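lol so apparently i was supposed to do this last week
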Amino acid sequence: MPDANTITRPMAKAVPKTQRPKLHKVILVNDDFTPREFVVTVLKAEFRMSADQAYRVMITAHRRGVCVVAVFTKDIAETKATRATEAGRKAGYPLLFTTEPEE
Ligand code: TYC
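anyway here it is w/ L-tyrosinamide bound
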């Protein structure tokens, strides 16, 4: 027990917890030209999705206009979105993947 003459002080400073990097969504955007099967192929190749997962994401974008594909750190999200968009462009399709930060 500290007696009346003992000076106590609060802990120097709270050690900040390691900050987690903000995650970014990769978003698939619908268009009227890219064949459904091609979209599924790109999702499987670039995002390592099963045929079933890829179909669900494709059909959601087709019906609603957009669908979140996955979340990654900023660099990885941007790289994957660029590569997937480029795969469409090379095949002559306007397929588009965008990214945005998670709230
Ligand atoms: N809407 C396209 C079609 O009917 C298929 C498609 C789905 C294209 C999702 C893009 O992000 C997309 N052929």
